[in-house]
């Protein structure tokens, strides 16, 4: 099954389309679905000193979706394919874009088997990480503590660069791609 999954993906131009496809396909597979929720907060520093902790609710922070950044709720099942969203350790094959398959869903870690790159077949344990992103439109830095992975039945066209895929499905639902369009 892992060879089958690593050779295939559905590609779409936008993150919201990718998320919808991934959630739909996950629901088709048997097994218990496990949800991991992030812990979100604001980083207060000189760059955003005008922002105070109480300015934004936790629910608002949880609702923020940013390309190539883990979502607040990560839904997984045993055997589902995931993609790494950050470089963790290049010497062990844990690079941004590495595809893996979930082997165990623990309380404090997720065990995965690497499907792509130079360490195919290796089993690794992924911890939750505190990831930061400066949210330009609201002028603050979001700190999200979450596993740095996303489902990868589908991925953005940009994220597929560097992947070796023998079978690809394209899902194009938007009628316009223009200057300034954000795909990843």
From TrEMBL:
One of its GO terms (biological process) is DNA replication. One of its GO terms (cellular component) is replication fork. Residues 59-105 form the DNA helicase Pif1-like 2B domain. It comes from the Eukaryota. SUPFAM superfamilies: P-loop containing nucleoside triphosphate hydrolases (SSF52540). InterPro entries: P-loop_NTPase, Pif1-like_2B_dom. PANTHER family: DNA HELICASE-RELATED, OS03G0423850 PROTEIN. This is DNA helicase Pif1-like 2B domain-containing protein. It comes from Linum trigynum. The lineage of its organism: Eukaryota, Viridiplantae, Streptophyta, Embryophyta, Tracheophyta.
């Amino acid at each position: 099954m892992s060879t089958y999954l690593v050779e295939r993906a559905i590609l779409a131009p936008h993150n919201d389309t990718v998320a919808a496809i991934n959630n739909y396909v996950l629901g088709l597979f048997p097994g218990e679905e496990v949800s991991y929720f992030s812990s979100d907060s604001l980083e207060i520093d000189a760059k955003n000193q005008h922002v105070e902790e109480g300015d934004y609710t936790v629910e608002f922070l949880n609702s923020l979706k940013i390309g190539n950044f883990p979502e607040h709720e990560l839904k997984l099942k045993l055997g589902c394919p995931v993609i790494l969203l950050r470089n963790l350790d290049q010497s062990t094959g844990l690079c941004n874009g590495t595809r893996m398959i979930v082997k165990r869903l623990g309380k404090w870690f997720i065990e995965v088997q690497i499907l792509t790159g130079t360490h195919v077949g290796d089993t690794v344990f992924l911890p939750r990480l505190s990831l930061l992103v400066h949210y330009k439109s609201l002028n603050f830095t979001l700190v999200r503590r979450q596993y740095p992975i996303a489902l990868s039945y589908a991925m953005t066209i940009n994220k597929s660069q560097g992947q070796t895929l023998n079978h690809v499905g394209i899902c194009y639902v938007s009628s316009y791609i223009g200057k300034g369009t954000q795909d990843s």
